[in-house]
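Entry for the shared binder. Reason: the reviewer on the internal report wants the predicted structure included alongside the sequence.
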Amino acid sequence: MADLQQQLDEAIAARHAWRTGKTRTAAAFGDRRIEYSVEGMKQLDAYIAQLRRAISGVPRGRNRITYAVPD
């Protein structure tokens, strides 16, 4: 869990540095390489969300609601 938290902290710091203009144009997180562009920022946001879900224990995917409708 500490490793995931460290990765999350680094990803958030990278996002903050990009937003404030204090960073280079690319970053690597393990086996992932993310470039800072509009698309790269979306990937970084998705990566941050994935790490937050993994830390909180929320299962991946969407919760589906099934409605029972009388015939």
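Summary line for the report: The CA atoms of residues 17 and 23 lie 5 Å apart.
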